[in-house]
Amino acid sequence: MHLQSLFVLAATLPLAWTHQHHGGIGRRSEQAPMSQPGLSINGIPYSTRAYWMRKANQALFDVLGDACPFAAFGTVIVNHTVDGLGDLVCIGANTNKVTGNPTLHGEMAAIQNCSEIFTDPSGPYNMTAAEALDAFSQLSLYTNAESCPMCASAIQWSGFAEYIYGTSIDTLIEKGWGQIRIGSMEVFRQSFDMGTTTRLIGEVLTNETDPYFLWQYDPSYSCPEGCSRSGSTCSNTPTTA
Ligand SMILES: [Zn+2]
């Protein structure tokens, strides 16, 4: 077994934390925020994490042309092995309704897009399939909401260096979303045979990601920035010249 000490810590500490703070509100998914403003995890400052989390929100508009789609799940995949902010490799958004493919959550769509970009013979990388598979271990996946178990498993199969999420599954559930109630921490905990060492950094910039998910089932909640409410839906606010 190659359990990292980080994961041992991560797997045990939040239990006490959740019991102490959430013991009376049903069963939380046994995980706690792993990032706070001011922390610099893997040498990357929080301001850089926030920059890319905003890009994950922006991926909604970039992919769908809609700043406030109902399924507002956006992802960016970033190479932090270069200096500075890092390089954007690819983006994705939940495209179930565009493609008819129920598995194309934002994370799955982004992974697929990265693979296509990596192996495109006329693209910037021109990798073999084997090289593309290896490349994911150097990359960081940012998603504006915690991955469902399918996507968290895909993150494990990809072997990402880092996985950073915004809004938690617990928040989604509390705000009316139907979810498979297995948190990413649990998926990671059960992935010890995989030999991967993805660092999980949770609940980054939730003050900016939460608004994308809190309006859908709450008629009194304001729409995300750039959108306005018409009945039960939020739509892009027309820009006036
Ligand atoms: Zn998913």
What does this structure look like?
This is CMP/dCMP-type deaminase domain-containing protein. Residues 1-18 form the signal peptide. Keywords: Signal. It comes from Pestalotiopsis fici (strain W106-1 / CGMCC3.15140). The protein is α/β, with parallel strands linked by helices and 241 residues long. Helix content is 37%, strand content 17%. It has 9 helices and 9 strands. A 5-stranded mixed β-sheet has the order 4-3-5-6-7. Strands 1-2 form a two-stranded antiparallel sheet. The protein binds zinc ion (ZN). Zinc ion is lined by residues 105, 107, 147-148, 150-151.
Our Rg estimate from Cα atoms comes to: 18 Å
Helix content: 25-40%
Q: For the record, what CATH class applies? A: Alpha Beta
H/E element order: HEEHEEHHHEHEHHEHEE
Assembly category: single chain
Strand order of the largest sheet: 4-3-5-6-7
Query: What is the CATH fold-level name?
Result: Cytidine Deaminase, domain 2
Shape assignment = globular
Bound molecules: zinc ion
Strand content: 15-25%
User: What is the count of distinct domains?
Assistant: 1
CATH superfamily assignment?
A: Cytidine Deaminase, domain 2
The separation of the N and C termini measures 61 Å
Q: Count of DSSP helices?
A: 9
Which features characterize this protein?
alpha/beta; Cytidine Deaminase, domain 2; 5-stranded mixed β-sheet; 9 strands; binds zinc ion
